[in-house]
Amino acid sequence: MKALLLTAERTLELTDVPAPECGPEDVLVRVRACGVCGSDVHGYDGSSGRRRPPLVMGHEAAGVVEWVGERVGERASGIVIGDRVTFDSTVWCGRCGPCRAGRVNLCDERRVLGVSCEEYRRHGAFAELVAVPERIVYRLPDRLSFEHAAMVEAVSVAVHAVGRTPIRLGDTVVVIGAGMIGLLILQAARLAGAGRVVVVDLAHDRLELARRLGADEVVQPGEDGAAAILEAVGPQGADVVFEAVGVAPTVSAVIHAARKGGSVTLVGNVTATVDLPLQAVVTRELTLIGSCASAGEYPACLELLAAGKINVEPLISATPPLAEGAEWFDRLYRGEAGLLKVILRP
């Protein structure tokens, strides 16, 4: 089959690779759409240590079931050949303590599609075919396109983060980072009852998109991000703040922008360690919440997408064929203005 193979740092080649091996509990999916995640772009140059060549990347995908393992028919999902489906980016075991507690994102044996690191290598969906366990597969609503369905992984990350956060009806919510996840958190927070949503970013075009998607106010901060946010929300600070960037300055800003007794949810994950303003957290009794991936939100997110309650169409910049994947990866890596989500079509 054809696949977009990472053969070296910043080198992608459309080439022939063996079709994936399938086990008795697996489903073979012919990929119709696969989104380029920010983590793929970060891993493209080897800097993350989680995209080690040779590797077929890609974990935000949707397609059509082409084959099912002999034990799939025994499962409650009833997945059959011809079904339009998507699947979780995380392959979880279903046996460990976190899985049994429903926290599959924290699985002790967690593997992510399209990732190659020191512990494991698992090829992903920038290919004509991908094999995944039936337990992570979900049917698509009839009215949902493959391209929009490929966005469900990102939507689920945002919905999971909002679900972990104590948003009360009418709360003032700040989202720092108007990238893909931040713009989806904006929409999910509104659905959760936020009364006022303020989005913060350095890029003017992304702030304009945030306005289109429902932000009440947008902030383009200067050197002091916290001061800019407090000027917008008032000196008391915001009830809830989401950090969707993952670098030291923005983590510090969200902590200083939250009101006393407020909540800070950390979603961005670019740098491994950051300095923490400990006294501000302790003396103002803030609640810090980490949010990782998603844990069972896919069905709800698919319905939100199908109903148009979360709007992803303005976030999709291009849907080129897989054969043009190397070019589009380079454009994303260079940070070309105006590009958000690129969805490749095998």
- Quick check: average pLDDT? 95
Count the helices. How many? 11
Largest sheet: 7 strands, mixed
End-to-end separation in angstroms reads 10 Å
Tell me, what's the shape? globular
Approximate strand percentage? 25-35%
Describe this entry's structure for a reader:
- Helix 7 (225-233) packs parallel to helix 8.
- By secondary structure, the protein is an alpha/beta fold.
- Strands 3, 5, 6, 11, 12, 19 and 20 form a seven-stranded mixed sheet that branches. A six-stranded parallel sheet has the order 15-14-13-16-17-18, with helices on both faces.
- Helices cover 26% and strands 27% of the residues.
- The model has no long low-confidence stretch (mean pLDDT 95).
- It is globular.
- It has helices spanning 38-43, 97-100, 146-149, 152-163, 180-191, 204-212, 225-233, 248-257, 278-283, 298-306, 325-333, and strands at 2-8, 11-16, 26-35, 55-56, 60-68, 84-87, 90-91, 111-112, 115-116, 121-122, 129-133, 137-139, 172-176, 196-200, 217-219, 238-243, 258-266, 287-290, 316-318, 341-344.
Task: List the keywords.
single chain; 11 helices; alpha/beta; six-stranded parallel beta sheet; seven-stranded mixed beta sheet; 346 residues
List the helices and strands and how they pair.
Elements: E1 2-8, E2 11-16, E3 26-35, H1 38-43, E4 55-56, E5 60-68, E6 84-87, E7 90-91, H2 97-100, E8 111-112, E9 115-116, E10 121-122, E11 129-133, E12 137-139, H3 146-149, H4 152-163, E13 172-176, H5 180-191, E14 196-200, H6 204-212, E15 217-219, H7 225-233, E16 238-243, H8 248-257, E17 258-266, H9 278-283, E18 287-290, H10 298-306, E19 316-318, H11 325-333, E20 341-344
Parallel strand pairs: 13-14, 13-16, 14-15, 16-17, 17-18, 19-20
Antiparallel strand pairs: 1-2, 1-4, 3-5, 3-11, 3-20, 5-6, 6-12, 7-8, 9-10
Helix pairs in contact: 4-5, 4-10, 7-8
